[in-house]
Specification:
Length: about 325
């Protein structure tokens, strides 16, 4: 019986190692362990449970988005000990990508209100080149977005190498609830090797790292998940009686595309962020038939067509050459 227990313990350890390398979700690993234990007698199962060492993989926590379709694609939620990439297609969409990253940080604080991680601040590391175009976080805006300014720290290194060093040191200290590293585009000094090192730091510290890539293209990285974020038109502000306030602007909305995951095809979904309740809600695409680039900036009626004008340009008359005046 002792040899069988040792063999099962070795099997569990191998499963954990494979899951760690593949980034598999913990619920599946835990379910497999419980199914195996359920097939054994109660006494033997109790003996195996005592012999199994406490694994950090079994205690891994996830951050659910709160939308069933997206959480299913994420296999439960975002892992809180890994690298997650959030990118915008262009610098004009930097506000949407930054807002989504801050919304995730606010949701993390709200979800873990009784844990040490919730009491820890959020660290925003902004590359100087990125902040020149995307701007800097604004305390009043952060508060209105659902995140307390006193729990927000910002670092502005002059060089990308310094920003990477600060990110590694912050993850190694485990003093922050989440570290947000903002970069612009696809810099040559930040490639697969650097992202792999940051991912290992996040795994060792058990804290999440959000890579905020402003105006960058898809590239290979060690991120378990990668989102592409675009702004989406907001709905009108809802009223307590269920109606909407005409002409108003409601909660901020994001158009998300889950580009990197275990799904065979990307998942696109529109979400709106409720800063008061700190939660996401899905928005039907029927309500938003057009997205940025497909409609005019002003949502009012189009200008009427010109009247009493010829339907085509008239031919030019004779061109005369006049002598240049002295």
């Amino acid at each position: 019986m002792a040899e069988a227990a040792v063999a099962r313990e070795t099997l569990f350890a191998l499963r954990e190692t494979i899951a760690r390398l593949e980034g598999r979700p913990i619920p599946a690993l835990t379910a497999a362990a419980h199914e195996t234990l359920a097939d054994k007698p109660a006494k033997e199962a109790a003996g195996i449970a005592k012999s199994l060492p406490a694994s950090p993989m079994l205690e891994q926590s996830l951050l659910p988005i709160g939308v069933d379709d997206l959480d299913a694609a994420l296999q439960g939620g975002l892992p809180l000990d890994a690298l997650t990439e959030i990118r915008s297609l262009g610098l004009r969409d930097a506000g949407a990508a930054s807002g989504f990253a801050l919304a995730l940080a606010a949701r993390l604080h709200a979800r873990a209100s009784d844990t040490v991680a919730a009491k820890s601040p959020v660290l925003w590391i902004g590359d100087t080149v990125a902040t020149m175009e995307a701007g800097l976080p604004y305390a009043i805006g952060i508060s209105d977005f659902g995140l307390e300014p006193q729990a927000f720290l910002q670092a502005s290194p002059r060089k990308l190498d310094d920003a990477l060093w600060v990110a590694e040191a912050a993850l190694g200290s485990a003093a922050f609830a989440v570290v947000i590293l903002e970069v612009r585009g696809n810099p040559a000094r930040f490639g697969l090797t650097e992202s792999r090192r940051l991912a290992l730091r996040a795994k060792a510290a058990g804290r999440p790292l959000f890579l905020l890539r402003q105006g960058g293209e898809e590239e290979a990285s060690s991120a378990l998940f990668r989102f592409s974020v675009e702004p989406a038109p907001a709905q009108a502000r809802p009223l307590p009686d269920g109606s909407v306030l005409g002409g108003s602007i409601g909660h901020p909305a994001f158009r998300l595309t889950l580009e990197k995951s275990r799904n065979p095809a990307p998942l696109s979904i529109t979400l709106e962020w409720n800063a008061h309740d700190r939660r996401f809600a899905s928005v039907s695409d029927v309500q938003h038939p057009a997205f940025p680039g497909e409609y005019a900036a002003h949502s009012g009626a189009d200008l009427p067509a010109s009247a009493d004008r010829p339907h085509r340009a008239q031919a030019l008359g004779s061109v005369l050459a006049f002598d240049r005046q002295a």
